[in-house]
Amino acid sequence: MGFLSQFQTCFWTIILFLFMVLNCHVNEAALVLPKNVTVTAVFVFGDSIVDPGNNNNLPTIAKGNFLPYGRDFKDGPTGRFSNGKVPSDLIAEEFGVKGLVPAYLDPKTQLQDLLTGVSFASGAAGYDPLTAKTANVIAMSGQLELFKECIKKIKGAVGEERAATIISKAIYSVYWQ
């Protein structure tokens, strides 16, 4: 057996060994809060990675409300640019806030939904406002304006004190590709 053949055998043996060792010692990731901490809401900003359908009613081609998106989702395509839940949904679910974070601009989103958080994310947004303008989607600055509007609605519904509690104990997630 030549040197190259011995090297390849040794290399692949080491790779297989490392794979087996690492695979056996990988633990499931879990989000754990201290016992005295609760999350009241999840507010999400970003692009298509976490857009649950804010683009559905915008005059843009950047939409995920048709097949194959949501093919295996119980209600079909929702506007999420995925086949199921997006990262912000998983975080909200893990913290026990809600199963799905709704799109702020979804006509079905109700005042109750705002109290536990919504997503302002817009597919194809990008960091640069010009990118969003070109694609007819919601730039980060526009998402922040929608958040301010949301806060006013929350304050109007539950008062300043409870709104302050909701806002201060919420998780704020920002995702951009």
From TrEMBL:
GO terms for cellular component: extracellular region. Keywords: Membrane, Transmembrane, Transmembrane helix. The keyword Transmembrane helix applies. One of its GO terms (molecular function) is hydrolase activity, acting on ester bonds. It comes from the Eukaryota. The chain crosses the membrane at residues 6-26. Belongs to the 'GDSL' lipolytic enzyme family. PANTHER family: GDSL ESTERASE/LIPASE EXL3, GDSL-LIKE LIPASE_ACYLHYDROLASE FAMILY PROTEIN, EXPRESSED. This is SGNH hydrolase-type esterase domain-containing protein. It comes from Gossypium barbadense (Sea Island cotton). The lineage of its organism: Eukaryota, Viridiplantae, Streptophyta, Embryophyta, Tracheophyta.
